[in-house]
Amino acid sequence: MKKSRIISLLLIIVMLTTIFTGCSKGKETENNIPNSASESNNEDVKTDDNEESNEVVSEYGVTINKDNVVFTDAREKEVTIKKNPQRVVCLYNSYLDIWDSCGGEVIGRVEESEEKPVERAMSAEVVGTSGAPSLEKVLALEPDLVIVTNGFKVQAEMVPVFEQNNIQVISLGNDYLEDYYKTVRLFTGITEREDLYEKHINEVKKGVDEIIEKAPKDKNYKTLIIFASSKSITVRNSDSMVGEMLKDLNTINISDTETDPANARVFSMEKIIQEDPDFIFVQTMGSDKEKIMERIKQDVEDNPAWASLTAVKEGKYIVLPKDLYLYKPNARYAEAYEGLAKILYPEVFN
């Protein structure tokens, strides 16, 4: 009997030990589940953060990576620019205006134009004019980025020299509204100012789109664009900055009918009289306003037939302000479109 009791007690002890051990393991396993899930979630969060910081943005032909920006320049060459350059020289004031508004700073610039000063860049070293910048002065500043225009041959010829000296170069050829959007995307990508990109695009694009949408589509006014300097008088078709604006506002440029590219900019009084435009717009280039107006009078207004044109008789012969219609309007594009729209359609826009 005693042996039986002892055996029974031993069996009970073994069973109890097994039960407690099992419960303990169960609790340990349950306690481990939240920790594992938490660690797994943390890993997921870290992965998402990394993916966000490495996100590639591609808009208007500009690709923005983590450390650099890639685009095709005015030479049709793919170029990679490192973000946040520290020593920038800009050789064209219209681009300096955009660079400044995109959060960029410069150590070198060309002489400012009276109509388009960039206040924040006034203390930068002057390296000449847009048409005659000094290569020596630019190199002496030891820039890590130079912004040029392909509109001046002298600047285009400097680009290989900069590249040979391991200086990054942005060569641009902005003529149209889409070019402006691309340049803003490029510059804000380099300066890492996404907030300014959103501001530019939202304000400018929205403003321009609203004006274009509002412009009457059934008037079909004929227009002429004269481009005047102290040396010559030429014309511009729709493949120009002002020409594009007028086309977007539903006008017909009489110079678009010229099929020979060699004659696309030739001023022909005979053709103008034949087409008899409803509006004549004049762009002027040069600092000597008196000489420019003398050239216009001599080559255009002194012709007896000029006074017979509809646009002249009705007071629709207009000299455009330089700040919006010779220099790039940039952030003021909507204002430039509206200015033309008010002239063309006063009953709608005034």
UniProtKB/TrEMBL annotation:
Annotated segments matching region Disordered: 27-55
Any one GO BP annotation for this protein: cellular response to iron ion
Ranges for domain Fe/B12 periplasmic-binding: 87-348
InterPro entries, sorted: ABC_Transporter_SBP, ABC_transptr_periplasmic_BD
SUPFAM superfamilies named among the record's database cross-references: Helical backbone' metal receptor
Species assigned in the record: Proteiniborus ethanoligenes
UniProt feature, compositional bias: Polar residues: 31-40
Protein name, as recorded: Iron complex transport system substrate-binding protein
Similarity section: Belongs to the bacterial solute-binding protein 8 family.
